[in-house]
Amino acid sequence: MRWNKPYLVPIIAMFTIAIITGVTRPLVFDDLGNFVFDSWQRLKPRPFEHDGPVRIVAIDEASLLELGQWPWPRTRLAEATRTLAELGAAAIAFDIIFNEPDRASAESILATLSSGALRDGLSTQLLGAETNDQAFAKRLGDIPAVLSASLLPGSSTRDLAPKAGFAYAGDDPLPFLVAFDGIAGPLPVLAAAAKGIGAINWLPDRDQVVRRVPLLVRLKSAVFPSLALESVRVAEAATTILVRASNASGQTAFGQQTGINALKVGDREIQTGANADVRPYYTASQSERFISFGRLLRNEVARNEVEGRIVLIGTTATGLSDVRATPLEPTVAGVEIHAQIVEALIGNAILSRPDWAAPAETLLGLAAFVLVALLLPILPPLAAVALVSAAVLLCCAASFISFDRAKILLDPTFPSLALVGVYFAGTLSLWRADRIARQRIRLAFGKFLAPAVVDRLAADPRGLVLGGETRELTIMFSDLRNFSGLSEGLDAQELTRFMNAFLTPMTDAILDHEGTIDKYVGDAIVAFWNAPLDVPDHAAKAVGAALRMRRELAAFNAARAQAAGELGETFTPAMIGIGLNAGPCSVGNMGSLRRFDYSVLGDTVNLAARLERVSKLYHVDIVAAESVVRRAPQFAWLELDWVRVKGRREVTTIFGLAGDADYARSDEFAEWRRANEAMLATYRAGDITRAHSHARTLCDEVPSAWCALYRSMAARFGDVATRQQGTGIPPIRILDSL
Question: How many angstroms separate the CA atoms of 489 and 473, rounded?
């Protein structure tokens, strides 16, 4: 578990940021959410219904080419409305604001003439004649027609009253409606004749894409329905729009004024946002939705194309159309957007963004944050990546399923960013903590372990068990013989150089064989193998280190001898004694609360220390217990004796190391070992005289460095013969002083 301070501090900081972000919801989240919702619509747009409830009479390029430049005389529009009414249109809505008199009307043309006989004559003829606007208004009065108005932020002098009646349930909805101070609407004569007046306003997002459209807007205290909603009302011959707000009967708001919940037109109930806004579910642009204005005037439109439908009239020709962008397309005629809103209202194709969505997304994101934060320290890196990736994909999949099945918009952005944020914050802090831990391991063990071992330990610190454990180790004690004599006459700097020159190759020999330096005690070195990491064949590697130390000591003495010869000084060779033992030890952090070291304890360690001192008694440089020989039998071992050191009841068979594995296979060593075994066998059989003879013979035959061993053995046998007079089983050598 790595739920420590270096991990928790950045996680808590990131969690605090997540809470603040989830509660305040910066505008960037709206942009990200819109991108996701637009993607869902592009992935699965609303299917177009070929017999849908809406058609558009388009003032398109073909119509302009046939009928001339726009604007046309309103008598032509009156003719079109008459034709549509005769074809059975349920309602006719104009996405055109008739806020100025018809310029093609005779009185408008008369106003452009200079005073004179022509103007006076025309004025007399037109006196009392019906204007184009009056003719258009007369036609509008006979059909279910809806005219457009645009509410403006600035004030206006025109007074326009809505045609729809309103009834309210619950809280007063006016404070929640988008408010305007002015209006650009149809001429009074036209407004009076129309059955409905609808606002063409929409709620722009920062990228100007039409995603949300208000079904109700407010002009001071007057409420106007949107063009789409008013078209539906007129088509259904409803007179009143019921506005259901928070705290109405059947609405749960717990006394909070949360805004508008729904609108009811006739028998049709429409769920809305708090500002009476809706999000239409768009289809791709379809040519079947359009009827060219020219075709209509030529009476080429079949009755089944219009009958029972709501028909919108608007401009689509390039340069005339009110171009907007939708989630599906970058350029769409404004009249088509109104048509799609009507389709959405009638077909219940409204995308809902409920008021509980944002809090639910925040809670989900925070819960996911906490869960991943708890799991990161215990998961492998690949598993953590897989978990976070799967969770993000699950959030996106749930969002799409909610959109596809229920038309509810749930934004996966905050939960996904929370997951990614906690992953990167957690991973970065864990990486940093691991890096610090590895640096500490390198600092703690770099001086005592081989670089390769330190690299392994730093790469996987789990191999280091702190606080103590029992492991089977090979222990080495090494000591410099006659240190007092060697250091005599050396000043502090010379002594330091001497010790550095001696300890450096000895240390390198141990570290290069994967040993761990436990401590330096003056000129002595304590080392062990198989901790803190597993070292296969640790006994063999310890023996290999001892052999290299023997070679390094020879090179050290040769260099000193050459230097002494050049200076004309007396040279005294340095000698070492090494004790090796293997067995179970307690290894870990040893010491006090104020200071501790990674070290070893146990009987195996104590015996290794005794064997180093035993080596001096037998005049050999490397002595090992039988436990080492059993684990590394391939080397050239010579049995020395049975001994029992002070404080131990067990007898230890000790061996001297004559050479490496290659030497162990040589005929020379085989003969030497047979002679050595014969000497010990005669001694242990009680034939002290023959044992003494064997020792003296071996002294003359073995390498010169080993002659001292057999001289000491001969002396010992002679002493035993004197004390026991050649009879009885020779005693085990008891070394009470060691």
Answer: 39
**How many Cα atoms occupy the beta-carbon half-sphere of 152 within 13 Å?**
11
- Is residue 517 a contact partner of residue 525, using CB atoms and an 8 Å limit? yes
Go through 147-185 and write b for each residue having 16 or more CB atoms within 10 A of its CB, e for each that does not: bbbbbeeeebeeebebbbeeebbbbebbebbbebebbbb
Rounded CA-CA distance 203/414 in Å is 23
Query: Please, what is the angle between helix 667-684 and helix 688-701, to 10°?
Result: 160
User: CB count, 10 Å around CB of 556?
Assistant: 20
Q: Output the 3-class SS for 659-713.
A: ECHHHHCCHHHHHHHHHHHHHHHHHHCCCHHHHHHHHHHHHHHCCHHHHHHHHHH
The string of DSSP letters for 491-535 reads: -HHHHHHHHHHHHHHHHHHHHHTT-EEEEEETTEEEEEES-SS--
What is the domain extent for residue 265? 47-348
Please tell me whether residues 284 and 269 are part of one structural domain. Answer: yes
- Same structural domain, 343 and 383: no
The answer to the question of residue 585 being in a domain is yes
Per-residue CA distances from 487 to 493, 520, 569, 612 (Å)? 11, 17, 14, 21
Domain closes at, from 440, 475, 502: 440
Q: How far apart are CA 199 and CA 186, in angstroms?
A: 11
pTM listed for this prediction: 0.66
For every residue of 413-427, DSSP letters joined together read HHHHHHHHHHHHHHH
| Domain termination site, one of 400, 425, 440 | 440
Residue written as tokens 């609808």? 198
Tell me the per-residue pLDDT of 24-41, one tens digit each, with 9 for 90 and over: 888 888 899 999 999 999
The per-residue pLDDT for range 550-594, each reduced to its tens digit, is 999 999 999 999 988 888 888 889 999 999 999 999 988 776 545
With contact defined as beta carbons under 8 Å apart, do 91 and 146 qualify?
yes
